[in-house]
Design a protein that fits this description.
With 338 residues, the protein is mostly beta strands. It is built from one helix and 29 strands. A four-stranded antiparallel beta sheet has the order 1-2-3-4, with no helix packed on it. 48% of the residues are buried.
Length: 338
């Protein structure tokens, strides 16, 4: 689909799909495109004086959005048809929002009402009311590992990845990575609580923060395809989506495979709605719009007949065929020893 306003973020909750961005009708309005039938048909609504909306997430029975000089935080309990202002500000930008179901906490990060400062805004009642918790660095993306620890990327003079163990009141820099001037575009947590992100410097590297730790570990292997949005599926499977295409790694970055589809160019947007069966992709460049990309994971069934075939095995593959009794250390691909 296409829209004459810029689409900046997407979210999926079952058959309810949302795309948010700038309104083509008025430059000072934000636009929400919403569908209740998995994209078969769409409606739209403008949020007055919100300007472009940068992020949208679903949690606790509601969608939450905030925007670029839109300042405020908005909440919808009817799948995008109407919106209520739940936090009012006089300035600033909301870059990212996230919901943690284990604690019923929402977090929003971005720039504060005073230019040049960052902000963290938190809701502990499922999104009904919000309050400031931190006014330090400018944060781009926020997520949680589900155990009370939150992570956020930061792009100002103290760029890096930060973590908070007190629901966003204080943030500390993780160890093990230097940005080298690169932007950390997005982070993602897999079902086990491991955090993945791509360092945007040269070379672009996939990093992992193992669950329960605050140290980033560079994954060996090929250079990451780009610093675009990432989604961690678990078992070492990570997807990155950017203007160059859609890529999967099935072995924590050792190799990357390009998905044979031609998705819309997503520009510099950080926010894509990933599910295990498809991606609702936003596009900030021309043509402005959004696109659903189904079946982007290739978890095929392999029949193993020899060591060479085994070397192509990926985490998530369904294996049929002979039972191998050769000692593990004789396999040519050492990653398959287990």
């Amino acid at each position: 689909s296409e829209a004459s306003g810029g689409i900046r973020a997407t979210a999926i909750n079952g058959n309810n799909w949302l795309c948010v961005g700038a309104s083509p009708a008025n430059a000072s309005y934000g636009r929400v495109e919403y569908s209740s039938n998995a994209g078969a048909s769409w409606n739209n609504v403008d949020i007055v004086n919100s300007q472009a909306l940068n992020s949208v997430r679903y949690g606790n029975g509601a969608f939450v959005t905030g925007g670029n000089l839109g300042r405020n935080i908005y909440r919808s309990t009817n799948n995008g048809a109407s919106w209520t202002t739940v936090f009012t500000r006089t300035g600033g930008i909301i870059y990212s929002t996230w919901y943690d179901a284990t604690t019923n906490v929402w977090m929003a990060v971005g720039e504060s009402e005073s230019a040049g400062y960052g902000t963290t805004i938190r809701s502990t009642d499922g999104g009904s009311s919000w309050t400031y918790t931190d006014l330090s660095g400018i944060k781009d993306n926020v997520t949680t590992s589900g155990n009370g620890r939150w992570f956020a990327t930061r792009h100002d003079q103290a760029a890096g990845v930060y973590y908070s163990d007190d629901l966003g009141v204080t943030w500390n820099n993780i160890s093990g990575v230097s940005t080298n001037g690169g932007v950390l575009k997005a982070i993602s947590v897999d079902p086990d609580g491991n955090v993945y992100f791509i360092q945007g410097g040269a070379p672009m590297t996939l990093y992992k923060i193992p669950v329960g730790t605050t140290t980033a570990v560079a994954m060996p292997g090929a250079t990451a395809p780009d610093k675009g949005p990432v989604f961690a599926h678990g078992d070492g499977i990570v997807t990155v989506f950017n203007g160059n295409g859609l890529y999967n790694t099935y072995n924590e970055g050792l190799t990357w495979e390009k998905v044979p589809v031609t998705p819309v160019s997503v520009g510099n947007t950080n926010y894509q709605a990933f599910t295990e069966t498809g991606i609702l992709a936003a596009n900030t460049q021309i043509p402005l719009g959004f696109q659903y990309v189904p079946n982007y994971l290739d978890l095929t069934t392999l029949t193993l007949t020899n060591d060479t075939n085994l070397a192509n095995l990926r985490v998530g593959d369904v294996v049929t065929g002979s039972v191998f009794t050769v000692p593990a250390q004789t396999w040519s691909n050492t990653l398959k020893n287990e």
